[in-house]
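Researcher: Good morning. I'm working through a list of sequences from a screen, and I'd like to move beyond sequence-only analysis. For each chain I'm collecting a predicted structure so we can compare shapes side by side. This is the next one on the list. No need for commentary yet; just the structure.
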Amino acid sequence: MAFPKGIIELVDSLYQQGVNEAVICPGSRNAPLMIALTRHGGFKCYSIADERSAGFFGLGIALKTGRPVILCCTSGSAGLNFAPAVVEAFFQEVPLIVLTADRPKEWIGQWDGQTIYQENLFGKHAKAFYDFETDDCTQAPLTALAEPKGPVQINVPISEPFYPEPGFVLEKSETFSLRQNLTKNKEQSTKNKVDFAYFNQEIASAQKILVTVGQMEDNSIFESLKAYGIPVIGDATSNCGSMIAHDLLLADESIWPSLQPELHIHFGKSFVSKRIKQFLRSHKPKQSWLIHPNPIGRPDPFLCLSHVVNTSAENFLAGVNWTKKNWTAWNIAIQEKQSAFFAEKNWTEIHIYQAITEAIEKQEAEVHVANSLAVRYINWTLAKFNKTEVFSNRGTSGIDGCLSTAVGAAQKTDKLCISLIGDVAFQYDRNALWNKYIPDNLRIIVFNNGGGGIFRNLEGAKDLPELDEFMETQQGFTAENTAKDAHISYFSAKNEKELDLNAFFNNKGPALLEIHTNSIENAAELKKYMALFKA
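Model: Good morning. Structure tokens for this chain:
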């Protein structure tokens, strides 16, 4: 057969621009794409059957490398199963290139098998859509990496026959010279020119400045601000080393007026904490600045945004002149209450998270935290992740794909890659372990409380008669059989004596630890803990 025209050239152009990893889902219509990728010689290719898991697996790789990762699938509903990962990548600003094989255009809408409307399949949740037959698809990597980074779709109609004859040799395409352009684009996207005169004037005149840091990669660039008396607060996902337990501090609403800033500056993306949003919405600063090279829309979760400064955090911090402030309101110490509480140990999740956070911080590790209660617990404990980098799918904050993202990211680090995940999120994404790419450095800690424990802590929800059956999603499954199927060492703990973290962390090969607790006891202990910090 003659190989479908242009596919070899497309694949090689992606490679020449620095794209060198592809997650390929089995199928027939995408066979030419699969062959072009696997026989090219320049791509690390992964074969993952479940498109939903595959999408998040690719997301995890892209998180670690910073380069676009290809997701490749067949026609029909396959591409739709990429949607949760594509949406997460869009809002978390992670570059992906989605290659969706398609039926020839004359068969669209003709009741032909595996045929749906694939143009602009992801709508506003993809940065761009390229029609392989009519558009210049070589621009896809540039678009994916331009700020804000994100996913792009290339839809590739393919006619039969698409299986090569035995002995078919893939011909090399002409060499493209686009790698330099890609690098230049990345550099320019974070170095927008800013006139700092106005911002320096406002910083000099404001006596109460508050800096908040949303989800960001590992960094310590905000340490210098603390020397100026400027409070810096961030969730664990900010990786900024903030030591202010803002979620607990703000539990006492009577002190909110004393904490109101004149100037608020936000770096990074989304914030986990609901209290910081409520605080700034009700005690608005005179000005609120968002520092971002090119944000999606005009995000204003605090409802007080006055300026968007189109540059990177590094450039802004280097470009402005900071002055000493004498604002100490945010330095209220609450560690004594925390220390006293955690000194009285019991077998509930808040105490177990405290112990596990302390243990992980002693390891050479990175952590991928699932949504719902998991990502909140790590903000509430006394123990903090300082040298441990924290990741979480907080673009859309869904439970789907949390484990798959961790498995993908584990491919790109020599550290222990630890997934902290609840039982519902684990069961929802257990196909993350249905592949042959489970590395030895993967560690999974499943908190099994028999359902979605977060709903027992939500005002209004916890008293509903429908809570048990329709909200908490009570379930009796364990992770043991899934671990065995994936050839992962299984550990289980139902009390403190059974919890052997040393054996778990030092296991030779991937390991899963399942911690069994009682959701009612968990909710009661967490309520007791939070009551310590209210007026």
